[in-house]
Design brief:
Chain A: Keywords: Cell inner membrane, Cell membrane, Cytochrome c-type biogenesis, Membrane, Transmembrane, Transmembrane helix, Transport. The complex is a heterodimer of chains A (about 240) and B (about 220). Chain A is about 80% helix and about 0% strand. Chain A is mostly helical. Chain A has a domain of about 150 residues. Classes of the chains: A mainly alpha (about 240), B mainly alpha (about 220).
């Protein structure tokens, strides 16, 4: 029994079919609990007022925007090394979800920034690197769409993902060098000193868990769809031959 | 390898269009900017290094799809791939030819175009140097992009979408070096970082581009 057995599409679909409702339900549960808790049962910040509550969408979305790219990177590596089709399809499935998370993070950030910083947008290193990340997502998805042969598309997008990761990281530090920041430091970190206050902390953790589960559920669902779509194309092609 | 380089250079010069086109584009962009932002010397000299860098970058982008497209269509690329030369070497030579035909003229023309944008005096050597260091990175990154889109119909627009985000670090460091040079500030840090980006791209991307080409030619 090894992890690679789930690389078999049939087994993948069988297992995820069983897991998906649980993950989706717990994602929904976490999000409802976390957001309701965060929006209605935490006090307003003494300086930011109620706008602080956008943190429950902004931070988890930003976290998942980066983690989705990381997951695509790992899936691409698995495809390049071991050539499991499910892995390539999972990377493909994750891209639009990650792009959406990036947009959510950018949009909530702009909505928060308007009253707080007095501007919708600033060329701050964090904001800029997220915009660049979004461009990488766009290019990645466009390349998937553009290539007709599935295997070639998987190969090319995997290499683009690997090269893009290096350049995305490089851009992250380049923009740091290029402009001074307006964005505050990390809201969460493992050394407890600079975390947000405890009242905001717990609902935020629940929301992050909700976003992670939501991401997993969406990727499972989309990967299943991709597998079934490919199977359908194969059946159609076979019938046309017959 | 040398034969391939001479062939590519000769094709670029004799086949017409490709050689001067990037340069003409660079000129047009530079001439259009003052119409857009106004002719005040102070404003122009403030944005001159950035505009020249962006112009050079776009001119570079314009000629990228020529790197492999023609050879792919007439089958030369298949022949090259089966040649005893490793594909990585072919890609590197192609990138070098692209740099000589596109990057080098841009580097040489940039100081002259700086006059149009009233670039401050101390900026000229640094603009020249930063472009000289940065344009090889633009060429080799672009070669990777061209290899990604070589088999595609209407790959040109997709090529820009893929390549432009990859150009961000080069542009940041290059334009920063030119800007600091024009303002009389120390330029070592951005220039060294730019050289780092260039060296890294030159060392690694031919391998990625060759891997991509193998897939496209399969």
């Amino acid at each position: 029994m090894s992890l690679w057995e789930y690389a078999n599409p049939v087994r993948f679909i069988r297992v995820t079919d069983r897991v998906l409702p649980v993950v989706a339900a717990s994602a929904l549960g976490c999000l409802v609990v976390g957001l309701v808790w965060g929006f209605f049962f935490t006090p307003d910040d003494y300086r930011q007022g109620s706008t602080v509550k956008i943190i429950y969408l902004h931070v988890p979305a930003a976290l998942m925007a980066i983690n989705a790219w990381l997951m695509m990177l790992v899936a691409s590596l698995i495809w390049v090394v071991r050539r499991h089709h499910v892995s390539a399809l999972a990377a493909r499935a994750a891209a639009p979800v990650g792009a959406t998370m990036t947009v959510i993070a950018l949009a909530t950030g702009a909505i928060w920034g308007q009253p707080m910083w007095g501007t919708w947008w600033a060329w701050d290193p964090r904001l800029t690197s997220f915009l660049i990340l979004f461009l990488f997502y766009l290019g990645y998805m466009a390349l998937w769409e553009a290539i007709e042969n599935d295997d070639s598309a998987a190969d090319l997008t995997s290499i683009l993902c690997l090269v893009g990761s290096v350049f995305a990281l490089l851009s992250r530090y380049a923009v740091n060098f290029w402009n001074q920041g307006l964005h505050q430091g990390a809201s969460l970190s493992l050394d407890k000193e600079e975390n947000v206050a405890d009242v905001f902390y717990m609902p935020l953790l629940v929301c992050i868990a909700g976003f992670v589960l939501l991401f997993v559920a969406l990727v499972f669902l989309r990967t299943q769809t991709e597998i079934r779509a490919r199977r359908m194309r194969a059946i159609l092609a076979r019938e046309r031959m017959a | 390898m040398r034969a391939l380089l001479w062939r590519d250079l000769a094709l670029a010069v004799r086949a017409g269009g490709g050689f001067g086109l990037g340069l003409a584009f660079f000129l047009i962009v530079t001439v259009l900017v003052p119409f857009g932002v106004g002719p005040e010397t102070a404003r122009l000299s403030a944005i001159a290094p950035g505009i020249l860098w962006i112009g050079a970058l776009l001119a570079c982008l314009l000629s990228l799809d020529r790197i492999f497209a023609l050879d792919f269509e007439d089958g030369t690329l298949d022949l090259l791939a089966t040649a005893p030369l490793p594909l990585e070497g072919i890609v590197a030579v192609k990138a070098l030819a692209h740099w000589i035909t596109t990057g080098l003229p841009l580097v040489a023309a940039a100081p002259a175009l700086g006059i149009f944008l009233s670039l401050p005096g101390p900026g000229y050597p640094w603009l020249f140097l930063s472009l000289l260091i940065g344009t090889p990175a633009l060429s080799v990154i672009g070669t990777f992009g061209a290899a990604l889109t070589v088999g595609l119909k209407r790959g040109g627009l997709l090529l820009s979408l893929l390549v432009l985000p990859l150009y961000v670090p080069t542009l940041i460091f290059g334009a920063e070096a030119a800007r600091r040079g024009a303002a009389g500030l120390p330029v070592e840090t951005p220039l060294l970082l730019l050289a780092g980006v260039s060296a890294g791209a030159l060392a690694l991307l031919p391998f990625a581009a060759a891997a991509v080409l193998r897939v496209s030619l399969r």
